[in-house]
Structure formats: structure tokens, C-alpha cells
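Hi P.,

Sorry for the delay on this. The queue was packed all week, but I finally got your sequence through. Input first:
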Amino acid sequence: MSHWKSTNVFVTGASGLLGSALCDELVARGASVTCLVRDWVPQSRLLGTDLADRCNIVRGELEDYETVLRALNEYEVNTVFHLGAQTIVGTASRSPLSTFEANIKGTWVLLEACRQLPRLVKRVLVASSDKAYGSHDKLPYQEDAPLVGRFPYDVSKSCADLLCASYFHTYRLPVAITRCGNLYGPGDLNWNRLIPGTIRSLARGERPVVRSDGSFVRDYFYVRDAVEAYLALAERLGEPRFHGEAFNFGTEEPKSVLEIVALLRQSMGRSNLEPVILNEASHEIPRQYLDCAKARAWLDWRPRRTLAQGLAETIPWYVAAAR
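Then the structure:
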């Protein structure tokens, strides 16, 4: 707690799954947290609880340079967590321009604003994604793998990732990059994602719907473990050797879509509800999972919860929300 007490922190994407959980933990550790919020979503964990009352709220868009610069300057921000993005693959495919605006322009705006305030901003963490790697034959991904996104969402994360590298190598901005697996946990309002959507269907006694053929493989990474990973990395960003570095964070236990659905059916006592397989997913990479050896070696970091433990903490929230 002493590391974060009275530290001025700026969080983009604060009303999202990871952002709200990170803000909650930062406030608990004594940080002064300022959140950039575009849309007012009252059901979110940030705005639907008293968490917003314990943070400073700046209304605005990632792409608005003057708003971002003003917030960093006026709240005398020391540490930035850039989580804000359009995160849904299907949305990106339907509307690539708005995704590129948020994920690519939003990132360069944030990085440039940080560059303008070197006496204030000392640490910048930017959320990339395992999707930034694109499709590779060699798995699991390691951090030195090329970033070759092809589909709109993947490309947006590849670009944001490369922008961070550019700002480090050109301007020595103290930035580090995180590439996480598929996040899940209480508070995700994107019901078209596998875990929230499946839990809601099962809670309602309905057959869960699988958009793909069920064979797609991913890392499923519990949000509380992700928060701990972000904080562990941020706490080391005072060391120059961490600047410009990227770190994979995940479970290293990849699961297929149908394996996740089966675990949820079993956990919720709904084994009789067979999934509906639509087999209509497009613009998605069939197999993605991460090697986290670098995080273990550099940060002595490991996820503290198993998939079963993470799901056990997640299911009750969604069951309540589905009512």
C-alpha cells in the first residue's frame, strides 16, 4: 500500500472490466485516481457503485488531445494506465474506422500528452493484447514475436503496441506494454463475450450460444490476477531497464471455447443444456496463447488463481445480473 499512497494516477478505460477493478484496487492502496470516461454507463462497476465517488472523473474522449493533456497536467499525474479502447472484435469488423480512432489515435494522443509533461509523468503502462501478435504457427507467443495483426481489431492493437515502442526509442518515454489473454471476471457488461454470455444463458435455463465451431483456443485470464500483474509492472517502472519492454500476462493453460462452456455447465449444474453451435465467427484467429516466462523472470509474477477459482468468483455476479 505504501508504494501507491498519495500517488496521482490516471486511468483510461476506467469503466471497463479491467479499468474498474484496477481503480478499485488503486483506491484501496491509497492512490489518488483520475478516470477518463467517455460514455456514462450506470451499470458499470465504476459508476454503479461508490467507486466513482472515490475517484476524480474527467469526461471526454481518448482522441481529444487537449482533454487528455489538461487532465494529466491539472491532476499532476505521475502514473498512467492506458486501458481505454474499443475491445470487441465483432464491433471492430463492423466499424473499423471508429476502432482505429479509439485504439490507434487514442494511443498516440495519450503518449504525446505524456511526452509533453516529463516532469510529471514518470510511468506509462499501455494495454496491448495477445491479438497484437496476429496469427503465428509457433505457439505460445513470446514477446519477441512479430506483431502482424491482419483483422481490424488485431491491427489496431499491433499499431498501438508499435506506437509505444516508437515513443520509447525516439523520446525515451518511460512506457511499458502489457499483452494479456482474454480477460474475464465480475463486471464485464459485454454479454457477447463467451464467459458472460454463457453464464447468463445457463442462469436463465437457456442453451448457451457459441458463435464459432467451438474449437478456438485462448488464454482465459482472471481480472484480479490482471490487476496484480499491472501493479507489479508499474511498481518496477522506476527502473530504466523496464522502459520500452513488453510483457505477456496469462495463465499458460489455454482452453477451447467448448472446454470453457463445459466447465461452466458443470459448475452451474446445467450439464443438460447443450450449446448451440452457430459456426459463424469471422475475422478471428483460431489459436492464441501466451508464454509468460518473461514476467516470471523479471517480475517474479504468477497468477494466483486457477481457472476454476476465477470462475467460482465470477459466476455469482453474472447470475445476479441475469435476473
